[in-house]
Amino acid sequence: MKYSDRILNTPSSFIRDILKVLDAPDIISFAGGLPNPVSFPIEALKEAIDGAIRKNGSKLFQYSTTEGYSPLRELIAEKYRRKFGLDIQSEDILITNGSQQALELIGTVLLNKGDKVLMEEPGYLGAIQAFSLCEPEFLSVPLEEDGLNLEKLEEVLKNHPVKLIYSVPNFQNPTGLTYSMEKRKAIRELVSKYDLAFIEDDPYGELRFQGESLPYIGAGYLENSILLGSFSKTVTPGMRLGFLITKNAQLMRYLVTAKQGSDLHTNIFTQYAIHEYLLNNPYEEHVKRIVELYRTQATAMLDAMGTYFPASVSYTRPEGGMFIWATLPEGQSALKLFPKAMEQKVAFVPGDPFYVSRREVNTLRLNYTNATPEVITEGIRRLGSIL
Amino acid sequence: MKYSDRILNTPSSFIRDILKVLDAPDIISFAGGLPNPVSFPIEALKEAIDGAIRKNGSKLFQYSTTEGYSPLRELIAEKYRRKFGLDIQSEDILITNGSQQALELIGTVLLNKGDKVLMEEPGYLGAIQAFSLCEPEFLSVPLEEDGLNLEKLEEVLKNHPVKLIYSVPNFQNPTGLTYSMEKRKAIRELVSKYDLAFIEDDPYGELRFQGESLPYIGAGYLENSILLGSFSKTVTPGMRLGFLITKNAQLMRYLVTAKQGSDLHTNIFTQYAIHEYLLNNPYEEHVKRIVELYRTQATAMLDAMGTYFPASVSYTRPEGGMFIWATLPEGQSALKLFPKAMEQKVAFVPGDPFYVSRREVNTLRLNYTNATPEVITEGIRRLGSIL
Fold this sequence. Notes:
Number of strands of chain A: 14
Largest sheet of chain A: 8 strands, mixed
Distance between the termini of chain A: 46 Å
Oligomer: homodimer
Strand content of chain A: 15-25%
CATH class of the largest domain in chain A: Alpha Beta
Number of domains of chain A: 2
Helix content of chain A: 40-55%
Shape of chain A: globular
Strand order of the largest sheet of chain A: 2-9-8-7-6-3-4-5
Order of helices and strands of chain A: HHEHHEHEHEEHEHEEEHHHEEHEEEH
């Protein structure tokens, strides 16, 4: 049988593939991107489910609307009005199966084969994978400590008809880096001159353990702004609840048509459950506890890296989120380091899958949210021993 | 902003659009395709959720595998081995967000722009919508009382490089028709000579209230057979749990890559819940009760049609499922009938969206699963008054 060109050109998820070999219990894995399970509000969600069924009965179990559960959309809209002063209404929100589905839908409605997609370098591999299904041409702009390189960004925009830009402005995956206020403003001004969609993917924004929350680049400012959010990192990823926000009503209509064709609608049972949970629980306090936990874990990893890594290895110092990005000396390959690390029973993600056009890179991603400080220290010690 | 060619060519769901105007409580609607909510095992599902959390804790809330929850896949595989004698193993099963997502994934991995897709005429509009996202060329073969017209099918296969065939062999949507044993064998033999994927979508197969269950056309026989199933019509549609079965391992690998890019994985919370429900409850007895309910409703509708419809209107007599298909006299338009029906406060789906190349057709779809026999009789009386 002949397969489609698009699937032949779509990478399988490197991470999900290597996660499969990490099942052995004595391996210390910094390879995943999983929230810490102690952060799941299991009892509160159980109560929320009971309450939602008591109030709404069979509505949790029936087919529902493609756009999502209206009271949940209104609750999300209200949060963005309150916290960011953005004019977001419930009709500006589409509920998706995690942010990942939002990426796929955006590709579906915007990208013809060969259209130009601008990625951060390095960039989120799930976005590379989702957009690949539409066979675009990827361009990339280096991500620096404080955001995209502006000169390179301007050069690319001037010389290529870029259709969409994908960015993760807060605690980026894979680097953990955050865009500065200055870069946000400069990027907004530059991008406003072009007819393109600006995607801000913000699954980690609430997980800030240092510094001040910053305004979005596009949301509230750019006509074709698309903001993505998720309950995966703050409530539960298993229920696959994300959302997309745009004020462009025509774009929203096309996204809804694409979602109809894709899966009719997102699981309505868990939409009711999360809505009821948000109504009856102190969400902000809950998130604060996750932030404290991740701060402790990030600190443990950074301290251990200071102790066990040679000075030739540099790394980012995230203000939030779930990842640290390390850079080996020029010319070394993180991919070649991986089997040696496995011998030491410690795992990470080699940087390769986060680039659209570079291979055998000297960078790697470390996740700190899924181990105790003690285990983190031991894992970094093992890794340091082979650097 | 410029949108993709594929979304500009994808129809919005006519049904979901007209359902929005049907909110008034005094309208009798035969337009939906909703299971009867009394069929949802709400209490048993609540207990299943409690049990699944008690046994598995945070696993219900964490990220999970793209393929789906293994014990659920095994339970599904076992059913197809037991009930149909098919050699299905858990690795042949992919859990999807309802069958609708399976259709989208199949299109993604198989269809290049312009590839030929063969549909039943009339055919399921959700499939037309899902495949449209890949911009194929649709061909169609008339669906007769006992299945596809064989001469026409052979002619199309001889003259066009068909990439996939989409069929609903049991109680088809929209017609309620079922393929006969003879047609199943003949189609299998014919199709086996061609290099194409044969999709059997079977969401209604268990809802048979008359006659004997028949073997599948492709599953167990054809190399590129894809069988789709769902818990939407027998347990709950709100949890969006469907599944795809194929023995073609290469095809399965590509489908998994496509699903990774689409949404990482299906809601694992509800996969655990449905699995626990299936383990601890008499599923077959539960389905029997739904069948009895739908038999009563179908009978009420057919009886009322016998009483109130003029002899010039013909209609199908389904052996199961959820739909009856009516044909008005030649030259009449069901679409033009619709506003008149709304004046009588009764709704149906005009046939148009179920055809890939015909408009202003004289056919319409009636759903009987969501009203009492009394209401069904009254609705058909109203409809009869304008025929």
